[in-house]
Amino acid sequence: MIRFILNVLWLIFGGGFLLFIGYAFAAVICFVLIITIPFAVASWRLAVYSLWPFGRTLQAKSDAGVATGVANVLWLVLAGWWLALSHITAGIALCVTIIGIPFGIANFKLVPAALWPLGREVVDL
Length: 125
What we know:
Shape: globular
Mean pLDDT: 90
Structural class: mainly alpha
Distance between the termini: 14 Å
Oligomer: single chain
Number of domains: 1
Number of helices: 5
Radius of gyration: 14 Å
Low-confidence stretches: none
Order of helices and strands: HHHEHHE
Strand order of the largest sheet: 1-2
Helix content: over 70%
């Protein structure tokens, strides 16, 4: 029940809906560009995870290969570093207040995913 309440509060006040819209918009653009479809899948995974993060976590897939690593390096250079920086900034800003600490921690959980999204999957705790 606590996870549900935290997810609803995250959706409304923690920026979950805005993160979802941003990652989903990036996924649509990557789908349209066809060659970037793997990035679109990763962006969509981040969109769904950022919409409802409490009670779930990201886990590395065991079958990720070398191509996933190369694509992650490309993602890191083009988009990952500024996405991670925005999550860190939002996390620090949210942790300033006592009420915002769980939402700040949720933003910090999104940092590794924003840096290195391919080869990960969302799993329930």
